[in-house]
Structures are given as C-alpha cells and as structure tokens.
Amino acid sequence: MKYIKQVITILGITTLLGGIPAAVYAQAPLPRVEKSPIDKTSLQQFYNQGVQKLAQGNFNGAVEDFDKVLQLNPRYYEGYCLRGLAKAQLQDFQAALADYNQALKLNSRHVDAYNGRGMILAEQGNINAAVADLNQTVKIDPKFVDGYYNLGLLNYRQGNHKQAIANLNQALNINPKLADAYGNRGLAQYALGNKRSAVADLQKAASLFQQQGNTRSFQQTQTLLQQVQQ
C-alpha cells in the first residue's frame, strides 16, 4: 500500500504542478492594444512564443515572453495566468501566486487562475484554501474537468477516498478518455478495499495510455496492476 500511494503523483501528471493544463495549448482571446499596429503584432508574437515555450518546457523563455506581453498590456489577465503557470513550473511559487492573484483581480471568473492557485496552495499545505479555489472552478464552469480531477487528487491525498472517487467520476463524465482519472480512481478503490473495481480502473487506464502513445504511464500502470493483483 505504501508503494501504491507514492505513485499517485505519477499518475496525476495531467494537471498537477508538474504538468501543463490542456488549456495552455488553446488559442486564448488576445487583448486589445490601443496603440500602433506594431504593438498589436508584437503582442501576438510574444504571446504565441510564450505558449509555444510553455509546451516545450522552456519555462524561463515563456516568462520572458509573457513579461513582454504584459508590458504591452498590463491588464491582460491571461498573460498573468500563463506567466504564473511558467513560474510554478520553475518552483517560484510566491511569484506564481502573485500572478494568479493579479489575473483574478482583473477577471474574477478565470477558472485556470483559480485552478493554478489552488494547486500551489495544496502543495504548500494550505488545504482549505486549495479546496476553496478548486470548488470555485467548478462553480464557475461545471464542465471544467481539471477542477474535478484536482479535487479528486487532493481528496485522495487527504485520505478522503470516497470523495475522491466522486470527484473523479465527475471528471470522467466530462472526459471519458482521461486515463489518469481512471488510474487514480483505481487507487482510491484499492484504498477502500474494492480490489475488483481497482483492477478494472487500472486496466482501463493502461489501455487508454497505450492508445494515446503514453508508454511511460502505460508501463507504470502495468506495474501498479501487478501490485494490486498480488
């Protein structure tokens, strides 16, 4: 059981601090720049470069690009949110929190900012504040899969296995191909003694990881299955 609990962070790579939310890859609405056409073109260029560098894991470069975006438009909340994400990857949590706070000051309904801030607060041990932020994400957007998924991870870590399963069920209702959610739900089922359900979930996770070409997670899940079936 000790080994299996340690692997939860590995299976949670989609939206934990160590991963990049899928929202980063989407084209966010660009802000208005009431200056020259050159300023608008520059902002678009720096924004696109920052998003690309986030996806590539070049977090220092992403911070530099979003710095330039925010110099051109200091009220662009998406720039603060994405810069906060890059800073979180660099373990600069206080600076990341400041960016998320600023994003929420400019847009109090920004679910990605609540989600990012909530995950940092969770890592810092501020569980109540983390839960409040993650609950806010799904209150604003009931289809926000990352909110339910991260609530599931947080509840698992706190030993609230039944609530974790409920959260992960909601995530899977929205995205039935979220392999990590099946894997982590399987771990929660195992913690409750539901071995058959745990095996079924882990098998489903392994199948999806294989279909999605995620060899590392597929192999890790296969190892977990062997542990659970002993």
List strands and helices in order, with pairings:
Blueprint: H1 2-6, H2 8-11, H3 37-56, H4 59-72, H5 77-89, H6 93-106, H7 111-123, H8 127-140, H9 145-157, H10 161-174, H11 179-191, H12 195-211, H13 215-229
Task: Describe what you observe in this structure.
- The structure is a single chain.
- The chain is mainly α.
- The chain has a single domain, classed as Tetratricopeptide repeat domain (Serine Threonine Protein Phosphatase 5, Tetratricopeptide repeat), CATH 1.25.40.10.
- Helices cover 73% and strands 0% of the residues.
- The chain has 13 helices and no strands.
- Helix 8 packs antiparallel against helix 9 (145-157) and helix 9 (145-157) packs parallel to helix 11.
- The longest helix has 20 residues, at 37-56.
- Mean pLDDT is 86; it is low at 1-28.
Series of secondary-structure elements, N-terminal to C-terminal: HHHHHHHHHHHHH
Number of domains: 1
Alpha-beta content class: mainly alpha
Molecular shape: globular
CATH homologous superfamily label: Tetratricopeptide repeat domain
Q: What are the segments in which pLDDT stays under 50 over at least 5 consecutive residues?
A: 1-28
Q: Total strand count, please?
A: 0
